[in-house]
Amino acid sequence: MECPGQTGYSDWQKTPFIPAEAGIQGQGLGPRFRGDERKGGRRSKLGTAPSVTSAHACRARVMMDLRAGGCYHGDRAMHGITTLQHMPKRAAAALAIALTLAAGVAGGFAARYVHLPLPWLLGALFTTMALSLAGAPVRLIPWGRPAGTVVVGASTGLQFTATVVAKLVTLLPLIIAAAFISTIVGAIGGLLYMRLTGIDRVTAFFATVPGGVVETTTIAPHYGGHLEPIMVAQTTRVALIVVFAPFLVISFVGGGAQNPLLAIPVVPWLPILGLVLVSGIIATLLSRTRSPNAWLMAPLFIAAAASHLGWLEGRMPDVLLIAAQVLIGSALGAQFRPEFLTRLYRLLWASCVVVLFAAGSMALFAAAIAWLGGYPVPTMVLAMAPAGIAEMVLTGKVLGLDSTLIAGFQLMRIIIVLIWCRTALVLFQRAAERVFGKPPNGSL
After folding, report:
1. Angstrom distance (rounded) from CA 153 to CA 299
2. Is the pLDDT of residue 71 over 70?
3. At what angle do helices 144-157 and 318-334 cross, to 10 degrees?
4. Which of 72, 126, 323, 324 has a beta carbon 3.0–4.6 Å from 151's, enabling a disulfide?
């Protein structure tokens, strides 16, 4: 049987999408080296796509190319992977989760030791990404990233006051304009993505539109988009901006700047745990209705209401923010699977080019607006960055910037993308037709 992706780049279209949670991080605890090839090379009913079992066999063989790097020995996987494979399923899962969490914490300590900005987020991201790319049995805590996002949302909501809300209302025209400009920049990036990879127009649009990763991967199949290139591009977009944004902020404000939030007293543990618990329950219920960014926005509004009513005053304990950084950073790093360095490498480097273009364009626009309006440049750069809302809000909060302003800009961008998604797609297809000509018959 011939593995898709090994004979030519275009073969990715023949491979069913296997998301990260269905791969190493979710399906099993490591590559299946024995028995996958014997479980069949069945063809799908369409006659073009191999079955999921067949895809697992091909993925295992691709990952075995890492032997040259010392990750595997002879015909056997690394000792740690084979040990997990022979353990009881629940015990292996618990051990893999514990080791992944320990690796993220260790990465945070290492990043803090070398004085990286946002050390707990970046350290966990780098460590988990390296392990995942090497084919290690990375496994995340169930509900870990949502829990970290709830903490970020509640922490930001505590800073919402009547003055902050009034400021956001006065900035509403600018916030809406920035959201539309970000979408236009993303569309230009989509044309560039098409040129570099040769993917179809619908997939290119959803791969580069600056919406949330979950939202775009949920909507795209309804329009005929292929999920795998979208997942690669959206994951790369968030991760790259999260990595570079702290260094950009430090270059503006200086490394010795004091975080003004540290002067605010910490909320006592009992009420803060009650806030996080209630917020988590409500966010869970809203997430089942597919509410956009429920894990961030529900706790943000609940905490803002509690703060406005005078029930809670202060800031989130540092240890909870550190835990949130480790959970979110580990979740980002785990998305980078071994295929990113083999079968999906062309998609990866094309995504990097597009992200640098989009992020650079929006950073220049944000800096110009900040200079004209007298706003802090680092805050506006993070507010208009085409990245994940939770990651940008967390970055701003940890670095002492106005996280409420960042949340307002980021939320409006995602809402506008979701509202005018269909119209934007039609306009993008027309632009692509002018640039590349009409698509072949039967394609989008």
Report:
1. 5
2. no
3. 140
4. 324
Identify which of 438, 384, 374 has the alpha carbon closest to the alpha carbon of residue 410: 384
pLDDT tens, residue by residue, 379-410: 999 999 988 888 888 888 888 888 888 988 98
Beta carbons of 368 and 182 less than 8 angstroms apart: no
Place of tokens 């809402």: 415
| Greatest C-alpha distance within the chain | 66
Contact (Cβ atoms closer than 8 angstroms) between residue 335 and residue 239: yes
Residue 93, SS3 per DSSP? helix
Q: What is the pTM of this model?
A: 0.70
Q: Transcribe 257-315 into DSSP letters.
A: PPPGGGGSPBPPHHHHHHHHHHHHHHHHHHHTTT-TTHHHHHHHHHHHHHHHTTS--SB
CA 140 – CA 24 distance, rounded (Å): 10
Q: Distance of alpha carbon 98 from its chain centroid, rounded?
A: 22
State pLDDT tens for residues 280-292: 999 999 888 877 6
Question: Token match 């018959």: residue?
Answer: 441
Among 318, 301, 304, 296, residue whose Cα is nearest residue 388: 296
Q: How far apart are the two ends of the chain, measured CA to CA in Å?
A: 30
| Per-residue model confidence (pLDDT) at position 275 | 93
Cα–Cα distance for residue pair 207/187, rounded to 1 Å = 10
- Match 């990036």 to its residue by tokens: 189
Amino acid of residue 35: G
As a whole number of angstroms, the distance between CA 239 and CA 235 comes to: 6
pLDDT per position as a tens digit, 229-254? 898 898 889 889 988 888 877 777 65
